[in-house]
Automatic annotation (TrEMBL):
GO terms for molecular function: 4 iron, 4 sulfur cluster binding; cobalamin binding; epoxyqueuosine reductase activity; metal ion binding. Catalyzes the conversion of epoxyqueuosine (oQ) to queuosine (Q), which is a hypermodified base found in the wobble positions of tRNA(Asp), tRNA(Asn), tRNA(His) and tRNA(Tyr). NCBIfam families: tRNA epoxyqueuosine(34) reductase QueG (TIGR00276). Keywords: 4Fe-4S, Cobalamin, Cobalt, Cytoplasm, Iron, Iron-sulfur, Metal-binding, Oxidoreductase, Queuosine biosynthesis, tRNA processing. This is Epoxyqueuosine reductase. Pathway: tRNA modification; tRNA-queuosine biosynthesis. Monomer. It comes from Bowmanella dokdonensis. It is found in: Cytoplasm. Its main location: cytoplasm. Its EC number is 1.17.99.6. Residues 183-215 form the 4Fe-4S ferredoxin-type domain. TRNA binds at residue 230.
Length: 378
């Protein structure tokens, strides 16, 4: 069969964007596969070992920046955005309560990976039905893909100084997914960068992980330390974690563009009550069976019960002095691995110091700054 004409490809492109929105994607963009300008940046980042223990970032070399090597025959990438900001997000309220476990907003609802991958497969099938032949593969954090670079090139948004994709209409509270295809569809234009001289995300980062604009040293990032790192959290970073037990949203919370973030229409992304705003002591008392039950279908489950306890132990060490906290930490010592025990002992030393010096007073600078950057109803 003859190759489709330019006009047929244009019509198909318009249909793809319409189908994508009907499947729940708020934005759909299309780009080619030339990411050569991103290769030097990726190479320098890897050479400095800023990926930490995330060896999967380096195992595939530059294939991450070469979609046609990852999936031979790929001519275009369809990049999609799915919003996840829920009503009544109350970010700052949770972060301001040191007795509460703060969980990154993206992880409070259903794990987005399977949901988005299934929607992308449905989009691929719709395209296949409209064409004589088509090869496609969907990706949602499931392969060496430079998703932010592709989203930028497809016009979904620009790459912010915190390295996340930003949109004037949606801020950064959204997930990204990609569909690799072998059709030469017309491509979209990138949009103008909107960060300007703002450096709020660099200033607010508790661990100074954004070492310079657009470069994040994962080894310092709280999301990396609480999710990706498998061993002990370096002691220098433990006091800086505060009550963050899974991920961190600070660089997004402070971003002025998130004042315009859209509320998600996807009910599966709404927070689960057993996870949001729960007391640290309650979460610390979960045994492994309870942890698995309460995190079923959640991205949190991937860290496992051991790292869950590790993270909460650090948060309890950072909490104001409490006899209940000390008792809970002591009671858990005989039940945990050596790695978790190290963090419990550290937490107990922090509690002992506070018992002598008096309860610590959390700085209000972070909270005031974050609240200024939130929508009125957040």
């Amino acid at each position: 069969m003859a190759d489709p004409s330019d006009s047929e490809l244009r019509r198909l492109s318009e249909s793809i964007k319409s189908w994508g929105k009907s499947l729940g994607f708020q934005q759909v963009g299309i780009c080619d596969v030339d990411l050569t300008r991103h290769e030097d940046h990726l190479r320098r980042w890897l050479d400095k070992q800023m990926n930490g223990e995330m060896r999967y970032m380096s195992e595939h070399g530059m294939k991450r920046a070469r979609p046609a090597e990852l999936v031979p025959g790929t001519l275009r990438v369809i990049s999609v955005r799915m919003d996840y900001l829920p009503p009544d997000a109350s970010f700052a309220r949770d972060l301001n309560n040191p007795a509460t476990g703060y969980i990154s907003r993206y992880a409070l609802g259903r794990d987005y990976h399977k949901l988005m991958r299934q929607r992308l497969k449905q989009l691929g099938e719709k395209i296949r039905q409209a064409t004589a032949e088509l090869s496609y593969r969907p990706f949602v954090d499931s392969a060496p893909v430079l998703e932010h670079a592709l989203a930028e090139k497809a016009g979904i948004g620009w790459t912010g100084k915190h390295s996340l994709t930003l949109s004037k209409e949606a801020g950064s509270w959204f997930f990204l997914g990609e569909l690799f295809i072998d059709l030469p569809l017309p491509v979209d234009e990138p949009i103008e960068e909107g960060c300007g001289s703002c450096t709020a995300c660099l200033t607010i980062c508790p661990t100074n992980a954004i070492v310079e604009p657009y470069i994040v040293d994962a080894r310092r990032c709280i999301s990396y330390l609480t999710i990706e790192l498998k061993g002990a959290i370096p002691e220098e970073f433990r006091p800086l974690l505060g009550n963050r037990i899974y991920g961190c949203d600070d660089c997004q919370l402070i971003c002025p563009w998130n004042r315009y973030a859209s509320i998600t229409a996807e009910g599966d992304f709404h927070p689960r009550q057993q996870l949001k705003g729960r007391q640290l002591l309650e979460l610390f008392n979960w045994d492994e069976q309870t942890f698995l039950k309460q995190t079923e279908g959640s991205a949190i489950r991937r860290i496992g019960h051991e790292r869950w306890l590790r993270n909460i132990a650090v948060a309890l060490g950072n909490a104001p002095y409490s006899e209940a906290v000390v008792q809970a930490l002591e009671a858990k010592k005989a039940q945990v691995s050596d790695m978790v025990l190290e963090h419990i002992d550290w937490a107990l030393s922090q509690q002992a110091e506070k018992a002598v010096t008096g309860p610590d007073r959390l700085t209000s600078r972070l909270i005031r700054s974050i609240e200024k950057g939130l929508p009125r109803d957040a």
